[in-house]
């Protein structure tokens, strides 16, 4: 086990859209990649929350 790629409270951006937010949760699985729950602001200004894999995020 290598630990989580991101910690709760880390500032992150979505790799494709560059929308930015904060990791507010994370999930670890036996047979699936870790997931991160991110609160972020969309390009149209809405605040949303969603789950992403580490490969979809970059640390700010």
What does this structure look like?
The chain is mainly beta and 60 residues long. The chain contains no helices and five strands. It has strands at 11-14, 20-27, 35-41, 47-53, 57-59. It has a five-stranded antiparallel β-sheet with strand order 4-3-2-1-5, with no helix packed on it. A hairpin with a 5-residue loop joins strand 1 (11-14) and strand 2 (20-27). The chain starts with 10 loop residues before the first strand and ends with a strand.
Task: Give the helix/strand class.
Answer: mainly beta
Largest sheet: 5 strands, antiparallel
Please write the string of helix (H) and strand (E) elements: EEEEE
What would the average pLDDT be, to the nearest integer?
94
Structure summary, number of beta strands = 5
What percent strand? over 45%
The radius of gyration is 11 Å
What is the topology, as strand order, of the major beta sheet?
Answer: 4-3-2-1-5
**Molecular shape:** elongated
Report the helical percentage.
under 10%
**Low-pLDDT residue spans:** none
Number of H/I helices: 0
Alpha-carbon distance between the termini?
A: 24 Å
Task: Provide the descriptors you would attach to this structure in a database record.
60 residues, 48% strand, five-stranded antiparallel β-sheet, elongated, mainly beta
Indicate the topology.
Blueprint (H helix, E strand, L loop, with lengths): L10 E4 L5 E8 L7 E7 L5 E7 L3 E3 L1
Antiparallel strand pairs: 1-2, 1-5, 2-3, 3-4
């Amino acid at each position: 086990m290598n630990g989580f790629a991101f910690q709760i409270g880390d500032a992150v951006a979505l790799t494709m859209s560059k929308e930015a937010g904060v990791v507010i949760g994370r999930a670890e699985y036996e047979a699936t990649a870790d997931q991160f729950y991110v609160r972020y602001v969309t390009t149209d200004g809405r605040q949303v929350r969603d789950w992403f894999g580490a490969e979809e995020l970059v640390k700010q």
